[in-house]
Amino acid sequence: MATTETLFPDRSDFEYDYETLCTTGVILAVIMFVAGILIALSKKFTNCVKPSSNSNSSATPVPKTEVPPQTV
């Protein structure tokens, strides 16, 4: 019968490549940071853009309804 040592060899020799891990982490952090800034700025600028003259300006605006406060 096979023992656990023959089925699962010792992996204590395994070492991480810390330089690659650090480099990959920094690159991913920079990408996510820039993506977050771009998303935040795109939402800010899309609210400031005026609608084009080709849009249907004769449509009636949708009335806003107020939500009554809930009692607990």
TrEMBL record:
Membrane-spanning regions, if any? 20-41
Could you tell me the superkingdom of the organism this chain comes from?
A: Eukaryota
Q: Write out the entry's keywords from A to Z.
A: Ion transport, Membrane, Transmembrane, Transmembrane helix, Transport
* GO biological process terms held by the UniProt record: monoatomic ion transport
Q: Where is the composition biased (Polar residues)?
A: 50-60
Give the InterPro entries listed for this entry: FXYD7 (IPR047284), Ion-transport_regulator_FXYD (IPR000272)
Q: What is its main location?
A: membrane
Annotated membrane topology is: Single-pass membrane protein
Subcellular location(s) per record: Membrane
One GO CC term of this entry? Answer: membrane
**Would I find Transmembrane helix among this entry's keywords?**
yes
According to the record, the residues making up region (Disordered) are 50-72
Q: Which CDD domains match?
A: FXYD7 (cd20325)
Query: What's the family?
Result: Belongs to the FXYD family.
Q: What is this protein called?
A: FXYD domain-containing ion transport regulator
Q: In which organism is this protein found? A: Pagothenia borchgrevinki (Bald rockcod)
